[in-house]
TrEMBL record:
Homohexamer. It comes from the Bacteria. Keywords: Activator, RNA-binding, Transcription, Transcription regulation. Antiterminator that binds to cis-acting regulatory sequences on the mRNA in the presence of histidine, thereby suppressing transcription termination and activating the hut operon for histidine utilization. Belongs to the HutP family. This is Hut operon positive regulatory protein. Pfam families: HutP (PF09021). One of its GO terms (molecular function) is RNA binding.
Amino acid sequence: MDIGSKIVATSAIKIALTTSRQEEADLKKEFLNQYNVKAVAVDYGGEFINSVGKIVERSVVAAKREGVIKDSHADEGAVAGAAREAISQIMPKALGLNVGGKIGVARHADHVSVAIFLGIGLLHLDEVAIGLGHRAVS
């Protein structure tokens, strides 16, 4: 079976949408067994503008810690670039507001995807958004 960017992107989105650590662990095993896709999720929150750097950093650190990417400049740059792309997609809704959510990172071969799922708080009127970035790295 040809595993491409679609499966990797789907895996990143699905793991970012999990609601518990157990659900994350189950999905990680499923992705690895079914598609040989490595994935990780990490929570984050805070005021959006101040969180941008932390989101990118947490994406890279979590991916390295869980073995989703290698400890190389190219892999770290791919995750950071995909995270920045995902952030740029949600920025118009989140600018100036508090956010909280989860980052999902998935990889297979030369495909890396980062999905960011967040709740955007404005008083008691919450909004949600998903951003997705993809990079190819060899």
